[in-house]
Amino acid sequence: MTPQAGAVAAYLAEQFRSELDLFRAALEQAPGDAFHTPRLGHSPAWHALHIAEWLRLMVLDDRTPNYHHLGWEDNARVQALGTQAAPVRESDPREQLLAALEQTGAQVVAWLEQAGDTALNGEVFSAATPGGTRPRRLALGMQLRHIGYHRGQLNLLLKSQV
């Protein structure tokens, strides 16, 4: 942590690091082809891209117009982000998808480690709110819970394959 980094941002960096490690461990439990096989709605590959995309959008505030795994693709605000090709597709090799998630997670943690607490102020994109944005601090908490939620879905998905 740098001297200008704040206590709240440092705490969040550690929480994101921990939750992303647990999420990655759950993804790695998918054996062979099961990583790309949809069960109970989506494949582990989709879950990896889903989390990476939401982190890019709501934590890093990245408006690159190539979102395809948010789960809100019919939403007008998401459509307004644009429709360039996805940098990584659900059918890409497992290693490529996990690398994309790892890269995004590392960017999130690095941003938080360098952020002062005032950097946590402001608004970020939100497809669900009337104004199209939500407070960044609220979004950060929501994204931590979101990762945990999808980790739970992965655990159920993997149990259903037994």
Automatic annotation (TrEMBL):
Pfam families to which the protein is assigned, alphabetical: DinB_2
Residue stretches in coiled coil: none
Signal peptide positions (record): none
Sequence ranges assigned to domain DinB-like in this UniProt record: 15-154
The organism's place on the tree of life at top rank: Bacteria
InterPro entries: DinB-like (IPR024775), DinB/YfiT-like (IPR034660)
Protein name: DinB-like domain-containing protein
Source organism (scientific name): Deinococcus caeni
Source lineage: Bacteria, Thermotogati, Deinococcota, Deinococci, Deinococcales
